[in-house]
Description:
With 414 residues, the chain is an alpha+beta fold. It folds into 3 domains: 88 residues, Phosphorylase Kinase, domain 1; 202 residues, Transferase(Phosphotransferase), domain 1; 99 residues, no CATH class. It is 40% helix and 17% strand. The chain is built from 14 helices and 14 strands. A hairpin with a 2-residue loop joins strand 11 and strand 12. It starts with a strand and ends with a helix.
Amino acid sequence: MGNKFRKGKENYEDDYSQYELLGKGAFATVFRAVKNSNGTEFAVKRIEKHNVGRKELENVMEEVDIMNKIDHPNCVLLHDVFNSGAELILVMDLCRGGHLLDRLKTVTVYTEQLASTVIRQLAEALAFMHAQGITHRDLKPENILFESPVSEDNREFRIKVTDFGLAKYTEPGKRMKEACGTPNYVAPEVILRKPYDNSVDMWSVGVLMYVLLSGYPPFWGSTMQKLLKRICDAKVSFTPEPFQHVSQEAKDVIEKLIAKEPGDRLSADQLLNDCWIKDVNNVSCGHLPAAQFRIGNIQRKKKFVRGVHSIILANALYEVAKGRKIARFVGGLTILVDRQDAEENDRRQKKTIVVRKRTRVLKRYDRVRVGRFSMASNITDTDTEDDNATSRKSNGMSGFPSMVNASKKMARRI
């Protein structure tokens, strides 16, 4: 689509009228805006540069570079970029239909045919991205939006893939090695620290398809390590009750996508040629109420967890304000520890340093302990095949450090 960079906040205010706030994050705010020349609505992300570090800003610019290469109706598109000294403004598609699972739980009749249509559009987006050398690397329900609310007949709708923060461009034949993604949707080769290609996206599509047709994740575990082990085993079960009402053709597609060996997985183009996708009119129109109910449960649980996290954060900030806890930077993360534990640990660290100097013994410690907290001292990986890889993408695992540590143990065992 070409380079969309333009200079100055004044250019933005000349071209767009800004309206209500749509969302706010740690580094950016998102507004609804209307283009003055034609009345088209857009989502505008405004990033104040003084709120972000140099590396975070570099990561945003990498994401902009990726989005500049994308021009497909099933992807959120970047239409304009205004870059001034104080602010970066991104003008993107406005999607009013909500996140994937949020919308599907509200449709009047949820069918296998509707799931097929969703997967087809997702495959079309990936076929385009993969042809451009782009791997998304974080496909999950939260990163798939409906352009507009679902119609009554469930036929006239369009999904859009969003959030290209972990996406990566690679030259033909080159592979990636950095560990990133969301635990439930990440492929085995990423967990095992093996070089991988865009087939990791197809694994994620298979996991997503399993969820859409049953309301269950294909892999689960009471701990992160158990979850990752089951992912690496790649044994898919169709015993959950909702699968009694799902066609064998759909189950076959899932097995071809959630294949342990990357070379055995369907590519995006191959998926588009599968009869379950290609002949959508022949796909079952039977209602899947159990799957739809559990999809709603997934969303309710996520909202509950987010609420609990908000309460925990508020309590933690109160403890810091009262001086009971202090923040410490450990293993690339900021954690809160009891003040007494931290002070005692500091005294022990000083003694250890004195002993090291006296005995002149060089010893490498793989773990750092602060009070009752323990985590890896080096939790990041960078692409060994890409000297220009930035550190943010090495921190891409949603749920690290537990996922990173568990996957390292898994790689050593297998």
